[in-house]
Amino acid sequence: MSACNSTLTLAPAEESARTAAVADPPLPPRPKTTAGPLDAANLPAATRIGPTFTPHAEPDSAEDGSRSNGAPVRQRDPGEVALSIVPLGCPGSESVAALPVPVNALEETYRTREQRSAVALVLDYGSDAAATALVDRLAAMLAYCTRPTPTDPLTTPRLVATVSRPDERTLFDSRYEVGPGASPTRWDETVVREGSRVGLAIVERAASAPAGDQRGLAGHLRDRIAD
Predict the structure, then answer these.
(1) Please, is 217 exposed, middle or buried when counting C-beta atoms within 10 Å of its C-beta (0-12, 13-18, 19+)?
(2) Which end of the chain has a smaller Cβ tally under 10 Å, C or N?
């Protein structure tokens, strides 16, 4: 038989090795439902997120390397969380100093029957100064999320945010996209600081739906994150 017509057959051990080499990497250990001194009692009740929200346990995701613990509350990697909070697609926001990394981070996820989603975080910074820096720097980043001018043509979606600071410990913003391929979704974010801790909730809504009660949620968050 000529070489060009021969068929290469792998031995069983070689086949197993090749399959292992192309398989998805193993998922990390299942996350805890606590993070340092933080537990589920430090996160907001679903009814305060919105009237139709319920707690939701995220499934495993090989694509992003996340592992479910079967519960809506999970410990998060502090460095990963600090990066995930940064608003993307706002020209100039990179000039703001990086968000401080918390010592501990705990997250809860929520869903509605219509599959609207929400996420809440409680971040333990260990110092009032670091927690203050998180709120101030996030506000500074969001200030760059402005609507483009008519002379600034877009080829990709641009994030726009309306921001308010009722007081130095509180931040409200509402985010949406403009430009080609922009999502019709709105995201309302509520951020509060209490001592060395920060509570954050971001809630999805339809563009036609009214914003939720951010002031009421802020008060509830502040009560929950208090030491």
Answers:
(1) buried
(2) N
